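Q: Given only this backbone (329 positions), what sequence would you predict?
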């Protein structure tokens, strides 16, 4: 039986827990507890809860209680975060160690996620799926962090909101827009399968994942730790296939061949979520996605019977996004 490793790699403890390897030693538990207790006060309780879950899953039923001070002991039951949430937090902490700045932002009207990635050393950055109404927020964050925004990239030609790429080019000098060549939309740079978006020491690999639209792209970080899947793969779902050149068969193949082929611990960040979820993993979606765990034939039937309403902004969003969004005055 393989030995349990210290969580130097943020996925190490997570993978060992999932594989139910031998319980953590007292020394290893003390190491995790001390790390949690040394966290900033704002994150202290969350760190303790994460360690508590790790200990219980690894075989220590008493959890971390023996390390807790009275101020942190309460009769009120606290809900522990999921292991996926712990993995996401661990990764966010690890990104600083390896020199990657990462932020996830949310636009509530269309339930769209925008992602900012940057190199800590060079300060070069890329923004994924910006929304027109949140351009001021995004530009402000870029300035506050002292970043140089090289690219604003869309995972596809969106139908539920207008992209912020056009306006971002006006308010952030030097920023260039990116979209798939197969989308038919205009941008400063059009990309295809296998192209890379470089920022500092990092890059995003473009993987063509059509099916929701012809021009859907999934952007994968160079170490395969993160995948920005757009509308191709959502958390416990996927993008609709009943308009914009949609094809259920094509989407099924795209997800299984281009996304599910990534490492199981790869964190999945979609373009939208409508139920308050923020991330998933390749392993979770392989096992738990209610649509994509079915056979292709079953998937096609499911997608053809969704009967979803027409997106409210489609008549204005698609024409604008075909020309890189509203360009400003």
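A: Predicted residues:
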């Amino acid at each position: 039986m393989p030995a349990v490793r210290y969580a130097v790699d943020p996925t190490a403890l997570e993978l060992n827990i999932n594989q139910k390897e031998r319980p953590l030693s007292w020394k290893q538990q003390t190491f995790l507890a001390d790390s949690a207790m040394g966290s900033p006060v704002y994150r202290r309780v969350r760190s303790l809860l994460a360690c508590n879950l790790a200990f219980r899953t690894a075989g220590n039923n008493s959890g971390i209680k023996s390390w807790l001070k009275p101020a942190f002991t309460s009769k009120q039951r606290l809900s522990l975060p999921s292991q996926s949430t712990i993995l996401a937090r661990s990764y966010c902490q690890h990104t600083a160690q390896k020199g990657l700045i990462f932020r996830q932002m949310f636009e509530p009207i269309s339930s769209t996620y925008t992602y900012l990635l940057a190199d800590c050393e060079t300060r070069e950055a890329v923004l994924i799926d910006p929304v027109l109404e949140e351009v001021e927020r995004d530009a402000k964050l870029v300035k506050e962090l002292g970043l140089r925004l090289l690219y604003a990239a869309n995972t596809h030609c969106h139908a539920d909101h207008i992209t912020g790429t056009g306006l971002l080019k006006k308010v952030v000098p030097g920023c260039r827009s990116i979209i798939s060549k197969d989308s038919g939309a205009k941008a400063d740079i059009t990309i295809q399968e296998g192209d890379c978006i470089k920022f500092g020491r990092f890059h995003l690999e473009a993987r063509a994942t059509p099916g929701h639209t012809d021009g859907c792209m999934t952007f994968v970080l160079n170490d395969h730790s993160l995948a920005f899947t757009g509308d191709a793969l959502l958390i416990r779902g996927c993008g609709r296939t009943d308009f914009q050149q949609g094809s259920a068969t094509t989407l099924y193949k795209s997800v299984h061949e281009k996304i599910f082929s990534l490492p199981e611990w790869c964190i999945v960040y979609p373009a939208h979520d409508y139920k308050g979820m923020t991330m998933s993993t390749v392993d979770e979606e392989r096992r738990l996605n209610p649509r994509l765990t079915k056979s292709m034939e079953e998937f096609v039937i499911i997608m053809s019977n969704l009967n979803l309403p027409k997106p409210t902004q489609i008549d204005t969003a698609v024409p604008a996004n075909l020309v890189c969004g509203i360009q400003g005055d």
